[in-house]
Design a protein that fits this description.
Blueprint: H1 2-8, E1 13-16, H2 18-24, E2 33-36, H3 40-49, E3 53-55, E4 64-69, E5 72-78, E6 80-85, E7 90-94, H4 98-103, E8 113-115, E9 120-121, H5 126-131, H6 141-147, H7 151-162, H8 171-180, H9 189-200, H10 205-214, H11 229-238, H12 246-251, H13 257-267, H14 271-283, H15 297-305, H16 311-321, H17 325-333, H18 343-348, H19 354-370, H20 377-386
Helix pairs in contact: 6-8, 7-9, 10-11, 13-14, 14-16, 19-20
Amino acid sequence: SFPELFEKKNYELRIAGGAVRDLLSGMTPQDIDFATTATPAEMKEMFTSAGVRLINNKGEKHGTITARLHEQNFEITTLRIDVVTDGRHAEVEFTTDWEKDAERRDLTVNSMFLGLDGMLYDFYNGYEDLKNKKIRFVGKASERIQEDYLRILRYFRFYGRIAEKPGDHEPNTLQAIKENSKGLAGISGERIWVELKKILLGNHVNHLVRLMYELDIAQYIGLPPDGNLEEFARVTKNVQNLCPKPMTVLTSLFKVKDDVTNLDLRLKISKEEKNLGLFLVKHRQELTKAMGPEPLRPYQDFIMDSREANTNSKICELLKYQGEEHLLREIQQWTVPSFPVSGHDLRKMGVSSGKEIGTALQQLRDEWKKSGYHMDKEELLSCLKKL
């Protein structure tokens, strides 16, 4: 196993960062990253002579080697110090000092190491903070933020993952975020969108987005300056256990379709995300359930009339947005019925001109829709005789 390789050479190897946080929280980490005192060159030599496959990904210049073992990728990064940072990228220098490596990490809960013997190395009280569900920057908040302004959004993301209740922030942290909010203007839209999506699906999202407005962050990450926070509060309640898409939650902030376009210009969201946003802005008000015995009918009619492929999933997101849990379950079980009559059937009945066939099909489709899509081929064709 590869820990033995490190041991033989007297290189230290420990689990690092997020994986330690997850293990201590009793969660299974998604991927386990390791940190080591060995340099990339030393690791390459050691792995190559032991016949371990290395995967070339461009991490090497900031110290990361990826080894492939037992059908799994392991990322192992040399301990390092950030020498120069410009708010986006860092130039690094390797070190063998574990505390120095912990010092350049963003949050205390992400700055711990775990020896393979189970020994915890925790220089910044991360374990205490994790137990107390506290999110804090390592050292001075403003320094950490200025190294990479995206850390402002990482603060929010981990707050939404770990903190027990909204509003439990250190005043000087919020101050540091506010003073540095402008730095987010220089961060690429793609990086921001990755973080923002995770925030939108985490806890305390209503509190955190409100905070983005209070701390002057919203305008730098593509959100409308006058976001509709009342609607946002309502919709975040509506979608609580319905697994919405991030865009469904976010659209409640938007008042007009330009808000979606502006978000797209700043964050380069996917085409599907953009279309969902535009769809919700357009239909959230007038496409609602019917009074009476068939509340689903307006949604079903919309799907049946639609010429697009994924209307069904957009309607599901609309129902989540509106908080219609029961209707959502019903529409998820509903199969789109297929229209039972074809032009071929009409020809057999003696309708010959293409134009007449088109008109007749449309009339029958309308009758079929009025019947709640229940009429079968026979009923429809006998209906045609009446028409």
